[in-house]
């Protein structure tokens, strides 16, 4: 299938602000699915509420646009009822780690075969530029006019600690790596987390005087480095990108089926 076959073209042009990174993520995800050669009927996309969650409206898969923070709960139900399907969940800061934080850690703990794509633009873009669990200290937001004092989550460390068996990070600048990491995540049998550092020039960029989308993407290039690079050794402040965790552990749906077989006396 060609790239355009995975898109609901009647819903374009999209509603994202000029320069938003979510369109780049959509492109990377579609490229990954195209490389895998999957049928549209093999994929279910589940999203909650937020700018990032609008991705589900633009793809021609089976889709569920659900309530805020509960995308992984709905996705768990879909996967348990139809385990042969590939379930992808695009999320933003709050959907994944604020109101949705509890679902995130337990989906990882269960190791259910779902791919969670977390778009980290460090702000609540849809509701007015409030600070999020990923904003970090010293940053400005509409709800932090004198700067934020909350520490931000490290998505990679959190996913790893919660039990996710595939954990990766990249940025919207590194488009080829993004498509490859999403492809690897979908192929992985277990709970997969791909953090994608993204730009929000409308709120985060403007509030923190980081310029437009081009300047913000250049900054993401400058502040990240491949895992284990010499640059990281020289400058520990750099953020690593790549695959941090990729291990095989019992997958939840498979284990659940074994319980059913046991309950039915092995029939």
TrEMBL record:
Q: Which Pfam families match?
A: TPP_enzyme_C (PF02775)
Which CDD domains does this UniProt record tie to the protein? Answer: TPP_OGFOR (cd03375)
The entry's keywords: Oxidoreductase
Which terms in the Gene Ontology molecular function aspect does this entry carry? oxidoreductase activity, acting on the aldehyde or oxo group of donors, iron-sulfur protein as acceptor; thiamine pyrophosphate binding
- Where the record annotates domain Thiamine pyrophosphate enzyme TPP-binding, the positions are 49-196
Q: Does the keyword Oxidoreductase apply?
A: yes
Instruction: List, alphabetically, the InterPro entries matched.
Output: 2-oxoacid:Fd_oxidoreductase, THDP-binding, TPP_enzyme_TPP-bd
Set out the biological process GO terms recorded for this chain's protein. cellular respiration; small molecule metabolic process
Q: What is this protein called?
A: 2-oxoglutarate ferredoxin oxidoreductase subunit beta
Name the source organism: Desulfosarcina ovata subsp. ovata
